[in-house]
Amino acid sequence: MKLNKTFTDEVMKLRTKETINNKEEIIKTLSQLLTNAVKTRKGDIAIGFSGGIDSTLLAFLCQKLNIPFKLYSVGLKNSPDLLYAKKVADFYNWELTSKEFTPEEVEIIFKKLKKILPIIDVVSLGVGAVTYAVCEQVKEKILFTGLGSEEIFAGYERHKGNINENCWKGLSEIYNRDIQRDATIAKQFNLEPRCPFLDQELIDYTMKIDESLKMNSEYKKLILRYTAENLGLNKEFCWRKKKAAQYGSYFDKVLTKLAKKNKLTKKEIINKI
User: Fold this and answer.
1) DSSP H helical ranges for the chain
2) What is the pTM of this model?
3) Which of 137, 196, 225, 257 is the most exposed place for a label (fewest CB within 10 A)?
């Protein structure tokens, strides 16, 4: 499936009532599907790297498949994602380019994004700023992102409750909410975004997995973490709990401080940036 306007319609055609719950068989199948999703998208690869389960697994699979790749990490000074990205890259001896941003530099990115994004809100600006900051550093032609992992494996608080139903809702909105944003930013840098987690076969299979294997009271994306362990990824990295990109990079703190300084909400300050 192409990541264009028809993506959502094509994804929703995959919806079924079929449920699978054999954990061992699921892990085995997912291991192969994830490997294939990376293998079929290989090229001159850059990975936006936070040290979270998604980007770490993508890098690990590239390594297993002997696909050359480079990692790019961004954040404010002492941000969790910058620190952990270095830890993971050092452990595996992966090539990592890190850039520590100042609040002023992040604010400039916010202003640039306001001119190009199709949707302007707190989340789009925060997540988009991280993507933009990464794209500024990339020298390769293709940017691997973890987009889609949260939706198919249940990675957000909003997935709690009726988990698979909420995952389907997220997938139905992912083009307008996320794909357009990332594609718009990547285009500014002549980059091609590729999203292994949005592979059709992977979506089709993952959305049949019993929701009890996706999330519990302690962890989100459970089955993905088990599968990453099965593939051989270091256990500590499989089970790292991570905040969303705008928080792990501390970029959201810039927006929060700007709002506080002007005695406005984050939603209100966006109109004044």
Assistant:
1) 7-12, 23-39, 53-64, 80-92, 103-116, 122-137, 149-153, 163-174, 180-188, 200-206, 222-231, 235-238, 245-248, 251-261, 266-270
2) 0.94
3) 257
